[in-house]
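Problem 12. The chain below contains 305 residues. Write out its predicted structure in token notation.
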Amino acid sequence: MLPSELLAVWKRKGVIWPRYAKLSDDNLEVAGNLIEAYKSHVGQKKSVMKEFVDELEDEGYDYRFVRGLAFLLDRKSRFRCNEKINTVDLRRKIYRATREPGLPTTPEQRTRIIEAVATELRMTADEVDKFLYADLDTELILEEFEPLPASELLQEYNLSLTQTLLFDSTEVKFKSSGNWQQIFHSIKRLGLIYEAYQEGAFWVKIDGPASLFKLTRRYGTAIAKLLPVIVANPEWTVEAKILWKYTNEICDFKIESWKHNALLKKPRLPILSFDSAVEEDFAGRFQALKSGWLLRREPEPVSAG
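Solution.
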């Protein structure tokens, strides 16, 4: 998921959908430049990456798009605090040192306080000044980065956009071509409230977080975690009712595999194994007959009421 302020959507006549980043040359170039920047700036401060993101925004790219990509790359990075001393303890010492002279109101008074603390810690005044706020987010050092192809980053961005939009859903329903065992295992593990019914195809309807009275954030995150399991299948359809909080309007949302498969990142499906030796033996004997029939394992759930 992305922070809500980075959600970019189109909304028209009661229909809403994310502003997906197409795998165009321009978008691939932006994603590729960001990935290369992270790779080449390992060992430098996070603020350096922020400056690079700002440069891309100044070139005319949508700030939500650029910052969204950077947010995803941050999650593939490991940052550390560049400090020789506990910064919280250092700040406490600075504040205690202001008790007698009082809060500094001039640069000279500030310098004297820092020098006093530096002498106590056997450090230089420059080191104390440098490490005073070394634990701030912008001061963190990029220690390790896990690169990925630009196209995969765009697909992950599009998937994250969808997850963020579903966070404000009142209901979500979907159908899928398979992987039902993994889907229902995820639904139950995530604690989602669902209803299954047959309407031509087999559909599952899940109550959205905006329809509940509490635990909205946790429940919305659970729905977001279910989406990758659904879109991992060859064929799927996801529909939802989205509460657009700015106008308090209920909007329709729909994505389908035939149209959006290439835009969304698809996790690998687990390799299906047999539940028992009896099942495996039956499949082996059935296929040995070469009857021309196709044997499919657990193609669709059975609605038991």
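Discussion. The chain has eleven helices and nine strands. Students who got a different answer should revisit the alignment rule from Section 12.3.
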